[in-house]
Amino acid sequence: MALIRAFTGALGGTFADQWLDIITVDRFDEHAALMPGVYQETNRGRGSNTRHSDAVISNGSRIYVPENTAAFIFDQSGIENIITEAGGYEYRTGGTDSVFAGDGIGKSIFGQIGERFKYGGEPVANKRVAFVNLREIRGLKFGTPAPLMYHDRFYDTDLDIRACGMMSLRITNPTAFIRQFVPPNVDYISFDDPKTKSQLLSEFMQSFSVALNSLSNEYRISELPSQANAIAQAIAADEGNAGTWESRFGIHLAGIGIESIEFTPESRELVKQYSANRMNVAAYENVSQQASNIAAQQKIAQGVQESGFGDMGGMMLGVGFAQGVNPMTGAMPGQQVAQQAAVAGAAPASQPEASQASSGQPAMSLSEQMDALKSLKELLDAGILTQEEFNLKKRQILGL
After folding, report:
1. 71 or 233, which is more confident?
2. Burial of 132 (0-12, 13-18, 19+ CB in 10 A)
3. Average pLDDT for 16-35
4. Does residue 70 contact residue 177 with C-beta atoms inside 8 Å?
5. Which of 36, 116, 267, 360 could bond to 159 as cystine, CB 3.0-4.6 Å?
6. 3.30.450.40, 3.40.50.720, 3.30.479.30, 3.40.140.10: which CATH number matches 137-267?
C-alpha cells in the first residue's frame, strides 16, 4: 500500500507542479523586515494552480518584486540568487521542469515521477523566495528601563533621568542582514517581536547612555531634546554597540526622535529644593541691609526649628544675630553705644539715675523696638514661637 501511495503522490504532484507559478509578496506591515514569497493561486475565483507543492518553483515561473524590496531565492545550498530592482522576472535557473516551459514531456513528466517515487512521492527540490524590506522602518520605540545618570553642569551634580522616543532603521546590506541577522529557515522577521529587537535595544541604550554623557559638559538636561542630531551621530559613531550594526547586520540607524527627557521623582525633588533656595536668596538681592537681616533671621530660626533646638536662648541668639544684637550681651546697638559712653565717661551715677535704671525702662529706640517686635511677629506667624514665648519677649523689649 505504501508503494501505491508513493506512486499516486508522485504522479499527482508531478502534474500539479507543471503549472507555472506567480510568486510575489503580501503587504508589509510597518515594522516587518522580512516576508515570505507567496504563490498567487487564484484571481477573483479564476485559477487552477491550487495544488502545487511547497518549496517547488517551476521553470518559467514569474517573480514580481515590489519597490523598496529585495527578493532572495534560496535552494538547498543557501542563497541562489538576489534581485534588488523592482520588476517582473522569469525564473529559469534550476527550477522544476515543466511542459509549459518547453522542457519536454519525457523529462518533465516521466523523469519527475520516477525521481519523486524514489523519495516516497515527495519532490526533491527545495526552493523558497523571501523578500527583504529596504524602506526605512520607522516608529520603533525605545525607553530607558532604568534611570540614567547625567551630570548637569548647571546644578553641578549627578541627576537621574529617564528618556523615551523612537528610532528608525534601514536595511542597507540585505545579504549581510540575511546571513548575519536572520536565523536559519526563517522567512518572517518583524521588529515588533521582542526577541528580534531585544539585542538591538540593549545595544542602543548603551550607546544612548554614552552619547548623553558626552554632551554633559556642554548642555543642560532641558537642552538635550534639541540635540537629537548630535545624539544620533554619537550613537552611530559608537564603535562598541549601535555603531557596528551596519557592518555586522547590514542595518543602518537612520534616525532618532527623542520625545522626552525628564528627571526621576527623586531628582525632580532635588531640583525643586535648589530652585526654592535660590529664589529665597534672590528675593533679597539689591535691597536694604535691614531686609537682608530679616531674611537671615528667618532662615536661622527655620534651621533651629528643623534641628529640634528648642532652647529659647538659642532661638534668641539667631534672632539677635539677624537684628544686630550682640549674642554675648543681648544688647541692641543703641544699648551698646550707651554702655560704652557710660564707661568712657566714668561719671558716678546719681541715686535718681540709678533708680531710673533699675525701673526697667527700655534702652532701645522706638524704631529698634518696632523692628524687633516685627521680627518676633513673623516668627509667631510662622509657628516657630508660641504665643506665650512671644508675649514674654514682647514685655522684655518694651520693658513692661
Report:
1. 71
2. buried
3. 88
4. no
5. 267
6. 3.30.479.30
